Give the backbone structure.
Amino acid sequence: MTAGRPVYRVRSALVLLAGVMLFCLVGIPYARACDCMPLSFEEAVEQADMIAEITIVGESGRDSDEWGITYVAAVERVWKGEESREIRFTTAEAIPSCGLGRLPEGKTLLVWASGADGSYSSTWCAIPAETEDDVRAQLTRELGEPADLSDQPMPSVDEPVRGADIGVLLVVAAAGLILLVGVAALVGAVILVRRSARSR
């Protein structure tokens, strides 16, 4: 009876430890998923400052408030807005925050963006809820032929900021430390269980 209590306490501690480790490694779940008011095609066109096809050239850095990642982007075609070959394009990395996610170098996408003077941002909420299968043809029919800037030189990223990479390394290091502490606690718990079993 007395030997059973320490074993029960050790098992409870192990379950609690496993829960804490899982919580630390996975992180706090998002309180909500991306929740947008659906826009019609006409509403999305009206609200956007720029509708363009862009190609990601590289990362320029993170916002000071960590809201998103800013990219250097080459503008290929413009249906609405500024006709500039190079823009800074920002979106949240977290899709549950309605961001477009991390955008790899070389990715080409159609953006419905807000902003001005070469600096734009966008979220899933700016994209119309329903479009035709060929949305580019739909845009051309509604707004006219796009300005084609693809024959202009590609912009370059002078000094890409590596803050995001450092952040990833810190997360990995923290996870490794948590695992190390967890393993040490697990070994200690196993030793206690064996000692309790022997004392019976």
